[in-house]
Amino acid sequence: MLLTLVNVFIEPVLLIFKTNKMMNDFFNNKLSLLKFILLSIAFGSFFVSEGYATTKSVAITQQEKTVKGKVTDDNDEPLIGVSVRVAGTSAGTVTDSDGMFQLNVAGSDVLEFSYVGYKTVKVTVGNKPFLSVILKEDQEILDEIVVVGYGTKRKGSIAAAVTTIGTEDIARTTSSTVSGALVGKIAGITTRQKSGQPGSGTSIQIRNMGTPLFVIDGIIKDEAQFNNLDVNDIENISILKDGAAAIYGVKAANGVVLVTTKNGSKNQKAAVTLDFNYSWQSWTSYPRMLNAYEWQYANYMKEANLGTLSVSPDVARAELEKWRTGYYNPETGEDYRGFDWRDNYVSNAAPQSYIHANLSGGGNKTTYYLSISNIDQDAVFKDYNFQRTNIQSNFNIDISEKLKLGFRLNGRLENRTNPALPGSDDYANARQAVFNLPPIYRPYANDNPNYLNNVPGASGLNLAALTIDNAGKSDNNTTVVQIDWDMEWKTPIKGLTGKGIFSYWTSQNKVNNLEKGWKEYTYDRAADEYIVAYDKSAANETWMERFDTTIKEFSGQFLLNYDNMFSKHHVTGVGGFEFTKRDYHSLNVQQHPVENEFIDLISTNDNNLVSENKAITSTASWVFRAGYDYENRYILDLSARYDGSWKFPKGNRWGFFPSVSAAWRISEENFFKNSSVSSWFSNLKLRASYGMMGDDNLGGLYPDFAYLSGYTYYKGQSLMPDDPFSSVKSKKVIGSAPKGIPVTTISWMKIKLMNVGIDFGFFDNRLTGEFDLFKRMRDGIPGTPSDIMFPLETGLSALPENMNSDMTVGFDAFVKWNDKVGDLKYSVGANITFARQKNGKRHGEIFGNAWDKYRWAQSNRWSNVVLNTDQGNAGGVWMWEVIGRFETQEQIDSYPVDQDGQNNATVRPGDVILRDVNGDGIINDFDERPQAYASADWPWDSSTSNKNPLISMGINLGFEWKGVDVAADFAGGFKNTFVADWDLKWGVTRSVNGYYYNNIDVWRHEDIFDPKSPWIPGKFPALRGQESHSGRWWNSFYTREVNYLRLRNLVVGYSLPKNWIRKVGMEQCRIYFQGTNLFCLSSLHDYGFDPEISTVNGQDYPQHKVLTLGVNVKF
Question: Hey, what's the signal peptide range on this chain (predicted)?
């Protein structure tokens, strides 16, 4: 019977999975394993439980009778699965699909009716044979249970800045990552999705302070584990934003994200839920590229402006006319047809499918939750795919009234496949080809699909070649398994419980990359011959690589929890020990060039490179928390952590990090309750917190194990003579080098975090909100003393020290209105976060004069505004301010300020006018000033350019009416900066395509071939490439403040009437449409760029616009 149950649950899911491309092979290989895992868990649940909805017999001193009843909501709709229990006993049952129940009870018994989202009701049985019970929705948010550090608390008794989001809001997304599901939904969260590549995540930060700590079901995990959870397996997420995060110590300097996965409910019959959707994806935005005629026109215009036309104006005009008409003569080979690379090689309907199935329920002493899901996402390019399969199982059992056990198993299988291309970003070549390939070239020589065309200046970028068949295959597979056990024991001491958690986590990443060669041709029409113009194999540009990384982690917690009431005094406490041990091992084998591209095996030869790494790390911590509240009015929480880190030498590994939080619930005071405002002011709480934390993530100045002495091996290689008397270098020698002076001068960064806030509620908490002001100060940021010098020949440098400081200041807030009018339920919410970082003291700054100090000093300045721009770093915001445009040559000739250092000889009408700040009549470095809010991104170094907007906000709308539900999530970012570079400033060239907006709408001569014809104004300066005065230097004309508001999610659903679906055994059937990124109002709209992209020339993979149809069914 049990096997039948598992098959009934699994087989329909597998059938749907198998219809999904690439999943058939997966399930053929793993079906037995999958069934075994689910069967084992289901068997365990069945073995220890007493049934999904049974009534346990108890000793009865009074005469029993049978009572029946029905439970409904305010709309007289039956409620399914309501827990009906005899108060003070374990006897109970649950309501059926019609809301009915039946139970043997005594007349004096009190029945307790409880249901998630509704207020609990108690009813005395008496002599009534039938009970009609109405449950009302619970709008008392102050009784909501919130997960905090190493425990839970009621929201009303929390003194810290904690924000929580529930399962319905989290799951309202088509994002493949959890971070993407949170965008715009939580106050205090700042986000930016810099790439829309399948499987890519969103940069999520708490108050712009950096990557937070992630804790999943009480176990500390990394961002990848968090992002790759299935959103439908998450019950809630809590965000610790202030000093309360100090209980997590060294890793919590940037805040903490606490994730709780779903569990079943006691006395809940087995319920199966299926969710399936199918999506069509396209890019949210894409700049209009030049067609063939426009590309030739812009190039001729630029060359005429520079005086470098290679043909006569008459020939150029004739050529332009042919390109305009698309002239083509197959007899002579004259071909002036354009080719749109994007239309032909970028899909506007890339598929994505998702399925999730779960089984949940419980008996009198057990709960269980089992799920399996799969997402299969294609990119807009051919042969690019991301897949992930998740398995989650949570099981709990009450062994006795004093002992509880829990077991969790979760895992994921993740696969990324794509063409094997050069570089670490396999999307880069395809992405750049779409933007760069000139529209006058076609993918195949002579349109013969057997011969790839060689595009001049773009060898290896022909999009027709960038497929698995031509380029080879990159296969990236990740397998993750986590097993958790926990035990909770209620001690004989009232209110004192002990809890232990053990967790084993392992991850294995295997990358198999075979980068093959291909040939590109030109066609000789006279000889009717295809000539090889590019041969990747012959150029020794082939690679074969194997990466194998395995991580094993074992962690444990031992905690004592105390929770007791003494009259009106509520006292809580937590104390315990936590440890983690991690083993890391990686092996990398490469062969370049590849000996045999037809055999996917690496052979032994001199071209091989083998690299192996291994590291064993561990942490240990003592945690403490004490809480007190008096009548839920005066609240005090104290916490501390004594943390040990492997990153520091002995004697300097431990740090103590305390915090304190306090709150006053004014609305609970008698003077407030008796006042006139209490009729509409339902909640008012003032909060304040202060915490001290450490951070051992010290960056590149303090690499792992820097405190150890020794040698670095391997440190390069060289060929040397086998015989010292011979000049023939035949022996390969591996080199090593001293690591340098051991770094023992550095320790933790020290963080102080202050927060004050207010929680409020109006009109029976239909209107609720929070507002927080915060300030974080970091001291001990690593720096290198500039006044300590070593002789160059030693190869040594000054040791880093804890020298510098900074602070982050800002506020976050949210407000939400929940109400019901007749059959219409609706909610409107908004949140906003502002956070900006400012440098503190920067030690060792030495300047030769006052200007250098003004220009380069970083102390006590807003961060990200001190980087250099005129030395090749687009990450800075110091540049020249544009105050106008030159309209005529006469204006240029008479202008008193030398704009170009050549008495304005290179300046043309339409060029920008730069402000002469110091009034010396010359534009130079002394006229630069900050012109932006935050640093723009430099494409080659994202580590220095991970800049989220200074302001993030969200608007959330929800409506429900007679089975119809509508929800919309808006997300916005403000006060970021985009600094254009390269082809955005210089325009089109003969080797790459260009954007329409900055190549056509330009200042130009009426006759582009006649420099004496009148100038026609345009939005952008005249095209002159890198010789352009306006584009040669960084200035505010090419700098754009980035502000945007996008419709992140729109969901419209309809739940079929229950009296229809119950006839076919369903409890719920909801059909829905979902749109993601449907539109965006952006200050980069005229550029055609997604406002969250990272590169300075716009050539990134933008986010996807997604249209989804789905169905959710519950049995």
Answer: none
Q: CA torsion 971→974→979→985, rounded to 10°?
A: 70
Half-sphere exposure of 1011 (CA within 13 A, CB side): 10
DSSP letter assigned to residue 210: S
Where along the chain do its domains lie? 2-47, 64-134, 142-265, 710-741
Rounded Cα–Cα distance for residues 822 and 167 (Å): 26
d(CA 378, CA 385): 4
Instruction: Report whether CATH 2.170.130.10 matches the domain 142-265.
Output: yes
Give the angle subtended at the CA of 732 by the CAs of 728 and 734, to the nearest 5°. Answer: 140
Cis check: omega of the bond before 714, within 30 degrees of 0: yes
pLDDT tens, residue by residue, 262-310: 999 988 889 999 999 999 999 999 899 999 999 999 999 999 999 999 8
For the stretch 586-615, what's the b/e string if a residue is b when 16 or more beta carbons lie within 10 angstroms of its beta carbon? eeeebbebbeebeeeebeeeebeeeeeeee
Written as six digits, the tokens of 599 are 């055999």
Q: What is the mean pLDDT of residues 653-665?
A: 94
pLDDT at 1021: 94
User: How many angstroms separate the CA atoms of 1004 and 307, rounded?
Assistant: 14
**pTM of structure:** 0.85
| Tens digit of each residue's pLDDT (9 = 90 or more) over 98-138 | 889 998 888 788 898 988 667 888 898 888 889 999 988 76
Residue with tokens 């690593």: 782
DSSP string across 965-984: EEEEEEEEEEEEEEE--THH
What's the length of the chain? 1115
| Distance separating alpha carbons of residues 407 and 464, to the nearest angstrom | 51
Does 939 score more than 70 pLDDT?
Answer: no
Q: How far apart are CA 69 and CA 365, in angstroms?
A: 24
Q: Are 284 and 1104 in contact (CB under 8 A)?
A: yes
- Three-state SS for 36-85 is HHHHHHHHHHHHHCCCCCCCCCCCCCCCEEEEEEEEECCCCCECCCCEEE
Residue 25 has pLDDT above 70, yes or no: no
Cβ neighbours of residue 496 closer than 8 Å, sequence gap 6 or more: 490, 560, 561, 562
pLDDT at 4 over 50: no
Q: What whole-number distance in Å separates Cα of residue 457 and Cα of residue 479? A: 41
Rounded Cα distance, 464 and 381, in Å: 11
Distance of CA 944 to the CA centre of its chain: 18
Long-range Cβ contact pairs of 55-59 (< 8 A, separation 24 or more): 55/91, 55/92, 55/93, 55/103, 55/104, 56/90, 56/91, 56/92, 56/364, 57/91, 58/86, 58/89, 58/90, 58/91
Is there a contact between 503 and 532 (Cβ–Cβ < 8 Å)?
no
CB atoms within 10 A of CB 1114: 16
**3 state DSSP class of 607:** coil
Q: What is the spatial distance between Cα 6 and Cα 1108, in angstroms, rounded to a whole number?
A: 30
Q: How many CB atoms lie within 10 A of CB 191?
A: 25
- DSSP-derived 3-state class of residue 341: helix
Q: What is the DSSP letter of 539?
A: T
SS3 430: helix
**Band of residue 1081 on the pLDDT scale cut at 50, 70, 90:** very high
Candidate CATH numbers 2.60.40.1120, 3.40.50.620, 3.30.360.10, 2.40.50.180; the one for domain 64-134: 2.60.40.1120
Strands in 234-240's sheet, in edge-to-edge order, are 162-166, 234-240, 256-261, 213-216, 219-221
CA distance 773 to 239: 16
Band of the pLDDT at 944, cuts 50, 70, 90? Answer: very low
